[in-house]
Design brief:
62% helix, globular, mainly alpha, 2 domains, five-stranded mixed beta sheet
């Protein structure tokens, strides 16, 4: 036993070294140093420490419940107000609450007599509520769009009425229950577990605060490219099926997340939409908490799992970008919670979890193209295990037809509705790298779209080179993400936590399972099957992709934590888990993880939003964008393009900065760059045909962007020469011209000479 204990200490020490080694190397190598040692970085570090100390004091030291919540609420309110995110934080949270309440209403309608209280394990049945609420809303918007009913103002009014009505309904329902003397559940109540749980709560609040505090610093590339412009490129008044002439690959993705967050778009600030993603990340943490409980974890372990996930930059850094990664992750966690619930719930309700898991899989297809792979893989892995264990009672499933239909329809409706938009635009049901598969089946991509095929980066080498290439990437992905092909990993990295928890899963998983009940053993085995499937697909992606993005592996990051944190309690070196040493170790881990979080983010910004006390409750991004364009000499051009948000423009300039004009803009890079179709400028006739297809009204050219001899320079000059661009205006050497393919405007003598003089 003594030798065994020594071996456990050795393995434990190796695991902890994995946790800190990569972070320490990155900090020492300068990869993250520039973000932390500058003035803004140092301010962010000290503010994080101050906020963590505040939360730690109230979560761990305060004994009275009202003092705890008052202190926590004051800290969050002060932090969000000082960083100009208070109003978006409240409003976007209310909208997510409205979605969950909508799901609860639908679940009550289809649940029969058992209604809302049909599930005993999960807190408010978050998986079912999100599935039916989000799927129901997306399906509703798709249905309204099929009837040409759309427009931001209408959808926003519908969302406001729906949310306020459901909140009023819920308030009345809670008041009636309280007056009847019914006790509400107290599961996961803050402070009941002592100082250990208080530490985890403080970490959770601090990690969320980090994202909120820097949310206004600047939008990332992808958010500016498409996520923050859904009110221009998704629905211009007639719904999501209107052809808006946008060609790039990103405009053809399934737009489930954009539809879900559409009421938050088109405001004076980006904060509403980005904060909605933060709330989805909070929902993901709750689902991790529930999944760990379904696996047999104690409340302390549940909070620990949620806290460790919140410390992973690859998860939380995606919370302040207008991308669908977090929404997809929530759907995938709903699948896993559904499979776990099927194995742990009572026989009366367990079969309903099958419908929730299946519906969540379909809903994830509406969020992101790669969900087709990852969601299908974990769904099949869980289904195969459940089939093997004979856990699915098909007779019971079919007896719950009302609930089955009620759970499947929202997810399937969202899936079909969003893919129908892609098919209507492109001729294939889904795009990204899967287009070649659709073409082999019999579909064909419509002109003017063009898409890439399935990548095979690792196959173009010899066996020895492929092995070296894969091992190098594996080392970079797990331990030290530095180098040219790791640039998109460091901003969404899993850190050393992932190899640590994977090691714990492999080393002590069997020992932990032996001490559990039959239901918990089966549930852990089912999640292990899903984990093995996710690892296999993730490693294949790591080998095949020419550009590795850390956010592709979010599901691996999240699933590794509950699978590892439970067996970790069986390790001999973890026997001090209830002593003060645990607090020291967890706190040290928190500061290392916070350093990585502060040192890298998806937008590449430094520090937090400057502290301000006098403002409207939000950061005025649109005003800042307008002032930036005016500084670059575009005030008159802005006035022209801002008159109608439906105006269609092709902007020749720096991408994605030129996309921020207040109308439907696509850049020249959109047309010919990555995700576009370079053949559209092969001849002038091809480009003019595309201008007709897109119904382009204006062409904008940015100052000093064109270079002599480039194709884009020749295309613009030829269009001016033949009069296809007319009513040309210059402002500080920036150009705006009307597309004149039908000859509505007369040719201007000397237009080419003026173009040469102003632009080049």
């Amino acid at each position: 036993m003594e030798n065994r204990g020594e071996r456990q200490w050795i393995w434990g020490g190796m695991g902890i070294l994995c946790l800190f080694a990569g972070t320490a190397m990155l900090l020492c190598s300068g990869t993250l140093e520039t973000y932390l040692v500058c003035r803004e970085g140092r301010k962010a570090v000290w503010e994080t420490i101050l906020f963590f100390g505040w939360m730690l004091g109230f979560c761990c030291l305060s004994k009275k419940k009202w003092i705890k919540w008052a202190g926590i609420g004051a800290g969050i309110a002060a932090g969000t107000w000082c960083h100009q995110i208070f109003l978006p934080f409240v409003v976007s949270g209310a909208w997510l609450l409205g979605i969950l309440l909508l799901g609860e209403r639908i679940r009550a309608l289809v649940g029969g007599r058992r209604g809302v209280n049909a599930f005993s394990a999960p807190w408010l049945c978050l998986a079912g509520n999100f599935l039916m609420g989000a799927g129901g809303w997306i399906s509703l918007i798709c249905l309204l769009s099929a009837c040409s009913f759309g427009g931001l103002s209408r959808i926003r009014f519908l969302a406001a009425v729906l949310t306020l009505s459901l909140m009023l309904w819920k308030t009345v329902e809670l008041f009636q229950k309280q007056s009847m003397g019914k006790e509400m559940g107290q599961k996961g109540e803050l402070g009941r577990g002592g100082r250990g749980e208080g530490l985890y709560w403080a970490i959770l609040f601090t990690m969320i605060f980090i994202q909120l505090a820097r949310l206004n610093q600047g939008a990332d590339y992808d958010s500016l490219h498409y996520g923050l412009r859904s009110h221009y490129i998704l629905d211009n008044g007639k719904g999501i099926y209107e052809n808006l002439g946008n060609i790039n690959l990103v405009y053809t993705y399934p737009k489930g997340f954009e539809i879900l967050s559409f009421p938050m778009a088109g405001t004076a600030t980006y904060g509403y939409l980005l904060c909605f993603n933060v709330w989805l990340a909070v929902l993901a943490l709750f689902l991790v908490y529930e999944l760990t409980g379904l696996l047999g974890g104690t409340r302390r372990q549940q909070l620990g799992a949620a806290a460790f996930v919140s410390m992973i930059p690859g998860v939380m850094n995606m919370a302040i970008t207008a991308k669908s990664d977090i929404a997809t992750l929530v759907c995938q966690l709903c699948i896993l919670n559904g499979a776990a619930g099927l194995l742990t719930e009572t026989r009366e309700t367990s079969q309903r979890w099958f419908a929730i898991a299946a519906g969540s899989c379909f809903l994830s297809f509406a969020m992101k193209p790669t969900a087709v792979v990852f969601s299908t893989v974990i769904s099949l892995a869980c289904l195969l295990y459940l089939w093997r264990e004979e856990a699915i009672l098909w007779r019971e499933v079919w007896r719950e037809k009302r609930f089955l239909i009620g759970a499947l329809l929202p997810g399937m409706g969202a899936w079909v509705g969003t893919w129908l938009r892609t098919y209507q635009m492109t001729g294939v049901p889904s795009t990204s790298v899967f287009t070649s598969i659709w073409e082999k089946i019999g579909f064909s991509v419509r002109w003017p779209y063009a898409f890439s095929s399935i990548p095979d980066q690792g196959f173009g080498m010899s066996l020895q080179e492929s092995l070296k290439f894969f091992l190098t990437r594996l080392y970079g992905f797990f331990f030290f993400p530095a180098g040219e092909d790791m640039g998109h990993v460091i901003i969404a990295w899993g850190t050393g936590l992932i190899p640590l928890f994977l090691l714990a899963w492999l080393m002590w998983g069997k020992r932990w399972v032996k001490s559990r009940s039959d239901a918990e053993r089966r549930t852990f085995a089912c999640m292990s099957w899903a984990g093995a499937a996710v690892i296999a697909v993730s490693m294949a992606s790591l080998f095949l992709l020419w550009q590795v993005d850390g956010n592709y592996f979010m599901l691996l990051y999240v699933l590794a934590v509950p699978l590892g944190i439970l067996p970790l309690s069986q390790a001999d070196f973890w026997r001090f888990r209830r002593s003060a040493l645990e607090g020291v170790l967890i706190s040290g881990c928190f500061f290392f993880q916070a350093a990585v979080m502060l040192g890298a983010n998806w937008a590449g910004t430094v520090g937090f939003t400057p502290v301000s006390f006098q403002h409207k409750g939000y950061y005025q991004h649109q005003q800042q964008v307008y002032e930036d364009f005016c500084t670059r000499g575009n005030q008159a051009i802005w006035s022209i393009l801002s008159q109608d948000p439906r105006t269609r423009v092709i902007a020749v300039g720096e991408h994605p900065g030129v996309l921020q004009f207040p109308c439907n803009v696509q850049s020249y890079y959109d047309v010919t760059g990555s995700g576009g179709n370079v053949k559209l400028v092969k001849t002038l006739a091809d480009f003019k045909a595309f201008l007709r297809f897109a119904q382009t009204e204006y062409v904008y050219v940015q100052e000093d962007y064109l270079e002599e001899g480039t194709r884009v320079c020749d295309v613009i000059r030829y269009l001016i020469e033949e009069g296809s661009l007319a009513d040309i205006r210059y402002e500080n050497r920036n150009m705006i011209a009307r597309v004149n393919l039908e000859g509505k405007y007369p040719m201007e003598p000397g237009a080419v000479a003026e173009f040469e003089r102003n632009i080049r």
